[in-house]
Structures are given as C-alpha cells and as structure tokens.
C-alpha cells in the first residue's frame, strides 16, 4: 500500500509557482462559501510518520486559508477529566460547528496504532477499535461532517535522514525528541500496523489519501488540491436542496409490551411512605460508593406527556447529595448544538466518575418525536438505533451504570391529567396546544416506543417500563430499580 | 444580625393554605415571562446551616416552578480540571443563560466561610475573598443576572435537636454525616464568621435575605414570596427599553505611547532567520516546563487590522508542540455566549495547567470596538476596565503567565497593506468594507487603545507594544518577549 508513495513523486519549481496561486485562491473561496452556507463542517485529519512534514502541512493550510475559521487540535495523554469519561468524549467535545474547519493531528487513530505497534494490544482488540472508528466516521459523515484524511508517508531511509539532519542542527534539534527515535526503531511495525488500519478505515464516506511526502512542493500541492476537490464537490452537492421529510405514523402491533403492562398496579399511601424511605436510604448510601468503584450513573426518562417524569425524578434526586447529581432537561437545542451531530449535546453532559446524570427526555427524541414529526429524514432515524447503541455501549464500557425508564400511562389517564392541569391554576403551564397535538398521535408514539425498546434494550442498558397510572407505584418501582442497579455495582 | 431570625416566626396552616396557591401561580407566571422575554437570568443562592431545610426549600422551588427551566448546582471539592484553573472558573462555567434560572447550594461563599471558621485562613485573607465576591456579584448584576440570596437560619439548640432527630430515625439517618456534627461543634465560629460575611456582602444589587427557618410554612412562604417580589420587580423594570447607546469617538492625545514608538525599527532577513530559530528553540524547550511548575500561559493579541497578528501568532505556535497550545480567534459570539456576561466566552477557554492559550483578539474588544461602535453603553465599557483587571488578577494568581501584545502599524503602512490585499487574489478575503470603515476611525481606536494600556497594564499582566511596520522586527520582538516570560517562570 505504501509502495505507491515511495516512487519519488516531485513537482518542479515552475509548475508549483504556476499552480499554487490558483489552488490557494480557490481554497479560500471554498472556505468562505463554507462559512456562509454553513450546512456542513470539515475535519482534516493529518496522520503519518514523524518527519514527514505534518506540522509544515498544517502551517501551509493555516496560511493559505483564513486561520480564524480553523481550529487546530491535538490529543495527548488524556487529562483526568477526559480519563474519567469514555475515550471518545474528547473527540466529541471538540467537533467543529457547521461552517467551520478543524485540523486534527494525532486523532482517534493514534492510540490504536501505537498500542498495536508496541504490541500492547492484540490484533482482535485492534480491529475492534478500528470498527469503532468506522462507526464514528460514518456517523460524522451522515451528520454533515466532511472528513478529509491525509496520511503523510516517507520511506524508512528518508525518515532516518531527516531526524539526523534536524538533530545535528543546534537551532533545530529541539524538534526531535527521544520519543521520535523510539518510534523510529519500530518503523517496520508501525508501517505494518498503519497499513492495516488505513486499509480497514478507508471507507466510501471517509477515504484515506496517502501522500508521498518527500518532496515539499509535491506534498503541499497534493494535500491542498485534494482538500480543494473535496470541498468543492461537497459545496456543489449541498446546493441540491433536500426535500423536507414527511411526518410518519407507524401503527402499533395490537399485542405489544406496553399493552401488556398491568396498568392497574398501585400502592397505598402507608406502604408507599415506608418503601420510598427504604429505597432512598439505600440510594443515598450506595451513590457514595460510585467514585471508589470508578463508576458513574446515567438515568434516562422518557414516556408520554403527563406521565409523571418530573415528580419521579425528584424522588430520585431527593435521596442524593446535591453535589452528586445533575438533571438535564432536554429542550430545544441551542445554535451551538444545532450546528453539530445530534448526539453532541448529550456527549457534552456525560458525567465524570462518581457522579449521576439524569436526562429528562434524551437522545431518544431522535426515534420518537423527530421520527413522528418528520424533523429528520427516515434514513436519519433509522441509522439512529445503531448510533445510539454504539453511544451507550461506550458509556457502559467506560463504567457508566445506565438505566432507561419509560414511565407509561394509559390514554384515559393522560386525558384525566390534562384536564386536571387545565383546571388548576399552578398546573396550567404544564399543558400546551402541543400536548394535545401529541396526544392525537398516541398510537404513532406507542408504535415508535415499542420499536425503540426492541432495538435499544440491552442487558447492560435495559429499558425499564414502569406502570405510571398510580404515581406511588411508579415512584417505588423506579427507586427500587435504581437502588438495585447501585447494589449491583457495589457488589461487583 | 441573626437574632432577628430567632424570634419564633410562624405561619399557621390556614394562612398558608390561603396564600400558597397564589404565590405558586404567580411564581410560575413570572418564570414563564422570564423564559419568553429572556433579557436576564436568575441565580438563587441557598446558604445557611445544616438542618435548616435548604434541600426542602429547593424541592419546593422545583415543585412550584417548572423544574425544566431550573438547574440545581452544587460545588464540592474541586475536580482536577477545576483545581488547575482559577477558583472562579467553575462558577463562570455554570452561569445560566438569559431566560433561565439556577439554584446554587454551596456557592462561592462556602470555601471562604469554612476556611475562616476552622481558622485555616486569617481575617485579612477572608476579607479579601469577600471583596472578590462583591466584585463578582456586582459584575453579574450589571450583566443582567438577578441574584437572590437566601440564608437559612436556625438557632444552635434547634440545629442540635434536628440533627439528633434525623440520626435516630433508621430510615433518615443517612441524611446526617460526620461532617455535619463536625460543623455543629463549630456552630459559634460559623455564626460569627457567617455574620461578618453576610454583612459585608449584602450589597444594594445583591442583598442577603435571612430566613428564620424553624417553621416550615414560614420558611417556604418567606422564600417564595421574596423570590416572587424580586422576579416581578425585575420583569417590570426590564420592560423599560434602554436606548441604543451612541458610538463614541475619543480623541487621542498628541503625544501618546503609540506615537512614541519607533516605527522605523527593522531587522534584515539574515539576522531575522537566526534570531527566530534561537527564540523558537527556547520557547519549545521552556514550554515543556510549564506543567511541572504548575503554570499555564495566556497570550493576547490586539492591534489595527492588517498589523500582522495572524502571521506573528503562527511564529509562536510554530515553536510549540501542537498538543501544548490552542488558538482562539474571537469572532461574533454564539447565542450561548450572547446569553451570558461578556467575559463568559473567555473564561470558557482558560487553559489548564501546562497549556498555552492564544487569543487572536480578546476581551479587550469591550473597550475597543464595543466602545467605539456603541455596541455597549458608556457605563458598560467604563466598568469593564475594573472587571478585566479582576479577571486577569485571577488568572495570574492561579499561575497563568499572561502577556498582552499590541502589534502596531502606522496608518500609511496599513493603507499599503490594504491595497496589497485588494490586488492579490488570495489575500482579498482579508479585506472587507468593515476594514475601511474601521480605518476611518483610526484616531478613535488609537485613543481607546492608549486609554486601555493605561488602565490595564500591570506588572504581572503587562501590555507589550510592538512596532509592526517591519514584520521581521515584530516577530522577533514577540518571540523574545514570550521566551523571556517563560524563562522567568523556569527560574522562579
């Protein structure tokens, strides 16, 4: 694979002088159009061996384009904050908004390649990590991120020559570190491992561009022209206006998990009071052990309007030290959120080790309201199941105890509660025209919810369906489930 | 001071039942109006002794209002990420946007009061910390944050009774920790210290409300009615539309620091090449020592359009490991940023220990472009000098090496560069109508800049004026200054 990048490609001074100004002017024009149209963002990955001119290439890009619209990112050893969250948290955090660019050195590829090249991880783990990359990049691409990936290549001999040259020059020697030589010693392993990684992750939506980096002029023109082509193609494509997706109304199967719930379940006041205190006591004690176990907790709440999510959540938080938890109520996204992939706003709020994060409505909006109201295209909510599963898998792997609650009520009970809300002055804010409109789509929501349970309930991140017609019953079942999940952690 | 909150205030059941529903309905209405009008945010501080019903009060507020518009925040021991930045970083990070509310337990008051009550800090330090609180709260208030501060008080005897009661109940004992008893032992010290803190920080814009907390009904109605009053007053006041501030055109003094610069300073190419490499080498080596010294670095760049800030910044970053720095180009604020005090977007980007953050334009926009274009009222940019000084003082105290560069060019040189930009295809993006408009205000910018140097150049955070007509000279002077600042750190 790398042989094709060891053939001595060069560009002479005259050709360079003739071509460079045009590429430069068009790159700038494309960047300006990107900023103005703003319906996608661009990530440029720069990989490859040391001494192949990665820094120099980035400097060219920053000089040829408007550096103010470009963020340069690198990821070193994770900080404590990063280490106490899933690996991809820091990549998510720094995704550029639509209209902007990011140049990333040392990306999500670095750790898998280095660990494998030094034989600290086996091939199976390596492939698993590459698969995660493929999923991540596919999601980015589907979410309007243009990914342009460059791999700067120089042959072993050439690398040695460059490192030596730099080391010898007293004014430049600081550019070469011990780490660079340590890596050079493993040139062959790196070459093999990188080749495997590149082959596997060169996908239709995010192909690798291997750049023969020996000749500076060739390298510069290859990178800038490739980037220019990708940008111009994408700008042209984005002019074709997508049709507004239509609302869809799935029909529920007559005998589904929601209809099987025993909606008459209830609990009397005395029993309720005793049980609430018992489970709250447990939760209070056990939450304190999360930190020492290296775990955190995420609780998700979904369900029909007026199902009692808010009150239920307050019963959980009421048992916790206020310093331990945070409640995120998911409302309309801000413009910073809208300018990024839809999961970004949730990744933002992933708790660090030791803490509890509660989502009052969540990323499942994608396959519920967005699906039914046609806020996204069918292919968008269809791929969301896999994206959500991958997201939750990462949470669980990193130590998050994840529970997802669907608090259910019957259509009759909802009607009763809506009417009560309209009649009680301090409850009126809770009922809007939209609630009535949603209610009219009861069956579509039911069908979408059942679909969602099927596709996203896993052993580690189960959906817990709660019969919510009786609030006492619902709250006790919720507290009991949370307490049991925490017990599971402490007993590990 | 607390005697007035030990007089046995009570509200009987009937009065409560009669008043509560109206307060509740009006609170909700006010919250809804806040969300719709969105020209201020609200922070409710809940302080006071353990057992005085702080948690219960918060629960009432969350139940009476729409919990989805309210974030509950607490601050425990700082995380590593927080500990490696100024103390107030975490408070800034969590400021609610306009239209929303935050309830804070354990705020910026906790640490000063606890440290003083346990006699780990002396009275002078305590007062200094209270002064910082006053500055902070005054700034919040000026920046459209409504601050409502409650102090829940119960007498010593009552606190003892409550802690004992809870401890005895097997289902509630988890609510009382060893820390609570340790604090109770210091009741008298806490009372004295808190009284001093409250007296000193009860300002016109953010007065303390001391609440006699023994009787639950009295406590609830007092808190909710006070909050309601504050909200309704503020909503009424915010209907008076502020006039759009006028642009101002300060005149420069004929003999000022900018006119005293020797704008003929220059450096030939050979000398330049040698010096650049020398200083870059130093910067590269020294930057690595920042982390071990517990320091970070912030570099600010201001100056006329076309002064060469971008190119100068690239000379600095070119000497650093890409993992060590980040460049922030300050453009129009996002809506999340616009919804908060103007310094919020800069606090967001304060580097952790060991890292370098470069601002291409900065918080000084407040006293430059915002002043001259009339984007803020005169009192806003006038108070900004003190706010900026306080901000920078906090940076420096926490270990930030701060340098502020004004790269200067003459009006003639700017004209030459503008013309060159218009004539060179790949430079045209750099020149806009706005640049020409700003140029027409050259003298006003000059006067504002001189004013700014005078008011914000301190020994620890000096302005460095750089003669920028010759780019070689400017870049070398910049690199030399950065290298010297780093040397200062390493030699400490």
Question: Could you explain how this protein is built, in words?
Answer:
The structure is a homodimer of 492-residue chains. Chain A has 492 residues and is an alpha/beta fold. Chain A folds into two domains: 2-237, P-loop containing nucleotide triphosphate hydrolases (Rossmann fold); 269-491, 3-Layer(aba) Sandwich (Rossmann fold). Chain A is built from 20 helices and ten strands. In chain A, strands 2-3-1-4-5 form a five-stranded parallel beta sheet, sandwiched between helices. In chain A, strands 7-8-6-9-10 form a five-stranded parallel beta sheet, sandwiched between helices. The model of chain A has no long low-confidence stretch (mean pLDDT 91). Chains A and B meet through helix 1, helix 2, strand 2, helix 11 and helix 12 of A and helix 1, helix 2, strand 2, helix 11 and helix 12 of B.
- Count the beta strands of chain A: 10
Q: What is the subunit organization of this protein?
A: homodimer
Structural class of chain A: alpha/beta
Most extensive interface? A-B, 61 and 61 residues
The percent range for strand residues of chain A is 5-15%
- Taking the alpha carbons of the first and last residues of chain A, their distance comes to 46 Å
Rg of chain A is 27 Å
Count of the separate structural domains of chain A:
2
Which structural traits does this protein have?
homodimer; 492 residues; Rossmann fold; five-stranded parallel beta sheet; 20 helices
Task: Explain the layout of strands and helices.
Two copies of one chain form a homodimer.
Chain A lengths: L12 H25 L3 E8 L5 H11 L5 E5 L5 H4 L5 H5 L7 E5 L4 H8 L5 H20 L2 E9 L2 H13 L9 H8 L1 H15 L6 E5 L3 H22 L31 H19 L8 E7 L6 H9 L7 E5 L5 H4 L5 H4 L8 E5 L8 H5 L4 H20 L2 E9 L2 H13 L9 H8 L1 H15 L6 E5 L3 H21 L1
Parallel strand pairs in A: 1-3, 1-4, 2-3, 4-5, 6-8, 6-9, 7-8, 9-10
Helix pairs in contact in A: 1-10, 5-6, 5-9, 11-20, 12-20
